[in-house]
Amino acid sequence: MSSEFTPRWKATDLHNDAINSIAISPDGKYLSAVLSLAWTGAPDVFVSGTADGTLLTVTVCISSVTISGFEGHRKPIECLAVNQAPVQAGTSPVPYILASAAHESVKVWPWEDTGWGCGEAFQPPRASAYNGDEEPLVTSVQWLHKDKHADNKLVIAYLHHGIHCHHYEKGSSRVLWVIHTPLCGACAVSPTGDNLVISNIVKGFQVYELPSASHRMHVNIEDKPDWLVSLPVKYAVGGAMLFHGDYGGKVRFIDSDQGEHFQTLYHEGWDVIQALAVFDDKTTDRTLVACGSSSPSCVNGICVWEAH
């Protein structure tokens, strides 16, 4: 990719609470920012998780917004992922599967005739020499891409229990492989399904090959502060680039194959970047990147960058 990213839109003070998650709709027309969310295959329908454990399905129309919901968990829902294929605007979510996570709890919700069906819970990982007595805490859920892997493979990242890949079938699930690595935060699967990148709170970012789960590359974080958090990470430009949040309002783009630095996006006056989203349009060779930041020391902000 020869062109660089330039800022297209910026807003501050949109939220009183922290911006923990942002996402761009499949058609690139909408941007949402809440505790947790995932767009379905329909460009006007997304799912959101709330602090009281409610799962909301939101349909956005030109003149109205329709919201329906139900109790999904007993704790804040911090991670969501939808296993789906694109569909036309104005239709219901496609009949695939929603994964939700709240603290140690992970559930999957198959789409049925008129809504999400009964949730099925995954068993949390057991204590081992790798995690000691630490309680399971989910930090990310990601579906593996159907065109590269068999249907319904869910990758779950735990803060102290590593990365677990489950194969889900209605009524049952089994663990296919585990990556034993501590202090796991966000993770992302490449569009080709060949690689998985993990945000390690202390070490930086680790890239693994799939399905072998063998370590492939390390990306270091420079100029770390005394306090550390899980930094977001995503693939962009068809998987050719990795971009990740950083401290001091920075977002760094690197080559996903060799790890070479490409560009740093600077957000003046911002603190740590806590949320990222990407939109790739292969037909127009257009890429949008949304960055979100919030902390007690600065105003909440979202900035969208664009490259052609």
Task: Report on this structure.
- There is one protein chain.
- This protein has 308 residues and is mostly beta strands.
- The protein has one domain: Methylamine Dehydrogenase, Chain H (7 Propeller), CATH 2.130.10.
- The chain is built from no helices and 26 strands.
- Strands 1-26-25-24 form a four-stranded antiparallel sheet, with no helix packed on it. A four-stranded antiparallel sheet has the order 4-5-6-7, with no helix packed on it.
- The chain is globular, with a radius of gyration of 18 Å.
Order of helices and strands: EEEEEEEEEEEEEEEEEEEEEEEEEE
The value of Rg in angstroms is: 18 Å
Q: In the CATH hierarchy, what is the architecture at level 2?
A: 7 Propeller
Give the neighbour order of strands across the main sheet: 1-26-25-24
Q: Could you name the CATH homologous superfamily?
A: YVTN repeat-like/Quinoprotein amine dehydrogenase
The total of helices stands at: 0
Q: What structural category characterises the helix and strand content?
A: mainly beta
Mean pLDDT level: 87
- How many structurally independent domains? 1
Q: Rough shape?
A: globular
User: Count the strands?
Assistant: 26
Q: Report how far apart the termini are.
A: 9 Å
Strand proportion: over 45%
Largest sheet: 4 strands, antiparallel
According to CATH, what is the class?
Mainly Beta
List the uncertain runs.
none
Brief write-up:
The protein is an all-beta fold and 308 residues long. The chain has strands at 6-12, 21-24, 31-34, 36-39, 45-49, 54-60, 65-71, 79-83, 97-102, 105-110, 120-121, 138-143, 153-158, 162-169, 172-179, 184-189, 195-200, 204-209, 214-219, 233-236, 241-245, 250-255, 261-266, 273-281, 286-295, 298-307. The chain has no helices and 26 strands.
